[in-house]
């Protein structure tokens, strides 16, 4: 018992120290960067607002959501707080400005997060289609993966192609050098990441796992995650020469050895430092590598930070 208490005390000290590290960084470095003061007048149509003819795919800083379809996961007030990473529906995330969705599924096509399940993938698809029907120039990256520890849904690639075929931008390295206008009326880059089934092939309507990469670390320590994000981003080529999407996640994850296990208070340790992170990307010379930036519980300020930097790139200010 004594060693357990001692361990918990040390863990709480480490978390407190790391939270202070980010506060100090904010106070000394601030959160300014090119485009920091830009706010889209219509987040639902922010890509259209930047002029699709001018926006190259590789200049976009894509605001994304982590574990996107968890707004109704588990049992309210019982298991949901341990797995819920978003409070908004897929449709409302897109309306708010998210353009990258992270969907985890299991064999029966139910969306899941670990052992907890929620609605069918059909709900996600219908929300995406509804959003696309109400907009004209917004491009979405839809990542669907089989959750760790689960089996692939049978014939799932066929399902995705049947449901989304008219919107799908086919797997093609040339996409990275095109503008939004050149891709329209196609609207979805769909990355399918099965665990055991064959990966989508070159030229397929679906994109393989190698086109969406990240370096996720499992920690609830905010400064550790912040520094890891910077380190791994520094190792990537600039977006101008990259033929894959690279994601940084402004999140931390509850740990079993810590008494705070609910997602929201844990990820809140890093949630408010998205603009500080972009500031540090510029300070350290990594800003030309930032591309997909994802978060838990997405809000307007996070979207505006990503859109603002995109605007600065499009206008030649970053």
Please provide a written account of the structure.
There is one protein chain. 36% of the residues lie in helices and 14% in strands. With 318 residues, the protein is an alpha/beta fold. A hairpin with a 2-residue loop joins strand 3 and strand 4. The chain is globular and about 60 Å long.
Q: In the CATH hierarchy, what is the superfamily?
A: Phosphatidylinositol (PI) phosphodiesterase
User: What distance lies between the first and last C-alpha atoms, to the nearest angstrom?
Assistant: 54 Å
Structural classification: alpha/beta
Mean pLDDT value: 96
CATH class division: Alpha Beta
CATH architecture name: Alpha-Beta Barrel
* Number of DSSP helical runs: 10
Widest sheet: strand order?
A: 6-5-2-1-9-8-7
Unreliable runs, pLDDT <50, ≥5 residues?
Answer: none
Topology pattern, helix = H, strand = E: HHEHEEEHEHHEEHEHHEH
Sheet of most strands: 7 strands, parallel
Pfam families: PI-PLC-X
Domain Phosphatidylinositol-specific phospholipase C X: 57-193
GO molecular function: phosphoric diester hydrolase activity
Protein name: 1-phosphatidylinositol phosphodiesterase-like protein
Topology:
Layout: H1 2-29, H2 46-49, E1 62-65, H3 90-96, E2 100-105, E3 110-113, E4 116-120, H4 121-134, E5 140-146, H5 156-164, H6 180-183, E6 188-193, E7 212-214, H7 222-234, E8 245-250, H8 263-271, H9 274-284, E9 292-295, H10 300-314
Helix pairs in contact: 3-4
Summed up, what is this model?
The chain is α/β, with parallel strands linked by helices and 318 residues long.
């Amino acid at each position: 018992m004594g060693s357990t208490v001692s361990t918990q005390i040390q863990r709480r000290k480490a978390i407190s120290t790391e939270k202070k590290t980010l506060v100090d960084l904010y106070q000394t470095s601030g959160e300014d960067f090119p485009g920091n003061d830009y706010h889209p007048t219509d987040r639902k149509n922010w890509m259209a607002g930047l002029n699709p003819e001018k926006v190259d795919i590789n200049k976009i800083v894509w605001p994304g959501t982590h574990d996107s379809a968890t707004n109704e996961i588990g049992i309210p007030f019982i298991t949901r707080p341990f797995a819920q990473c978003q409070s908004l529906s897929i449709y409302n995330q897109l309306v708010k400005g998210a353009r990258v969705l992270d969907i985890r599924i299991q064999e029966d096509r139910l969306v899941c997060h670990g052992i907890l399940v929620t609605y069918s993938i059909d709900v996600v698809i219908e929300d995406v289609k509804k959003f696309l029907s109400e907009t004209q120039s917004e491009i979405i990256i839809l990542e669907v993966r089989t959750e760790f520890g689960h089996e692939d849904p049978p014939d799932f690639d066929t399902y995705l192609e049947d449901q989304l075929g008219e919107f799908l931008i086919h797997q093609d390295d040339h996409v990275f050098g095109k503008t939004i206008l050149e891709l329209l009326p196609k609207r979805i880059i769909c990355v399918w990441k099965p665990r055991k089934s064959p990966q989508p092939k070159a030229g397929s309507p679906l994109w393989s796992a190698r086109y969406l990469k990240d370096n996720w670390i499992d920690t609830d320590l905010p400064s550790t995650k912040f520094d890891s994000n910077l380190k791994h981003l520094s190792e990537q080529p600039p977006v101008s020469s990259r033929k894959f999407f690279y994601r940084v996640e402004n999140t931390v994850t509850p740990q079993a050895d810590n008494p705070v296990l609910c997602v929201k208070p844990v990820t809140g340790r890093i949630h408010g430092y998205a603009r500080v992170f972009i500031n540090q990307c510029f300070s350290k010379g990594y800003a030309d590598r930032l591309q997909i930036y994802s978060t838990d519980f997405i809000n307007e300020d996070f979207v505006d930070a990503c859109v603002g930097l995109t605007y600065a790139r499009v206008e030649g200010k970053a």
